[in-house]
Amino acid sequence: xxxxLLSLLGMLALAAPALAxxxxxxxxxxxxxxxxxxxxxxxxxxxxxxxxxxSVFVAVPILYILWKYRRxxxxxxxxxxxxxxxxxxxxxxPALICVVIAxxxxxxxxxxxxxxxxxxxxxxxxxxxxWDFYYPDVSQGDKHVSAPExxxxxxxxxxxxxxxxxxxxxxxxxxxxxxxxxxQDVIHAFFVPHLGTKIxxxxxxxxxxxxxxxxxxxxxxxxxxxxxxxxxEMFFRVKAVPQAEFDAYLxxxxxxAGIDPTAGTSPTIxxxxxxxSGTVVMADPSASMVQKVAGSVSxxxxxxxxxx
Length: 308
Ligand SMILES: [Cu+2]
What we know:
308 residues, 4-stranded mixed β-sheet, 6 helices
């Protein structure tokens, strides 16, 4: 009987990864695009498989033992107190599994948190209830190149009687994009599931995230931090286009910002806490847009209300 049970457990354990991988996409992660999304999706799948196998190994013996040792079959309880071998196994094996998950997670975290060197910078300013995207690499002094206002309604997020527009962040295919993210009012979060990018937009500070869209596409993003009445309508899009198409798009936005591309210098991009030193940044004409927004927000805690 024990042999039969073990072979059944073995079969279930072998089938579990296949079942797990099959069931991931419907209702799970969307098909990942780019290295950060692939890394997160891969980590999720591995952990899912480990958990599925553990669940089978725990649930099946419990059900079997409940049935096998039910009261009308075994009236006398067992008298042994412990088993050193069993206890060693069920302490060491879970500990090893936790170490494996920790190492894999840490590896993914380092990869996601390390900004690539040859990236294009994009600044993201979230507000109640929308998004602004800036291209600081081609901005000049006080002239900030930004993504244009949306033209027309977005059928994917519009409801009958409630048309909605979505601002689009256009990026070139294959180019790493470093996001410098802040907020004007309350905490928001920039979230594009397909690209594996999710980062809080916090007033008074600049957060960083990166992604590379490895194929052309148009993906819906949404605010992922409850931020007020219209939080559920804070959609945006990230659109990846070939480099030549992107260059033409960017040239148009540079022109719209009133910039002469042959003169002047771009703002200094600060990738550190020094970018938000309040008035210093505000007074600096070469500050980039997120530095200005982050620097203009007071991060001093408000005095606690008087309790009567
Ligand atoms: Cu929100």
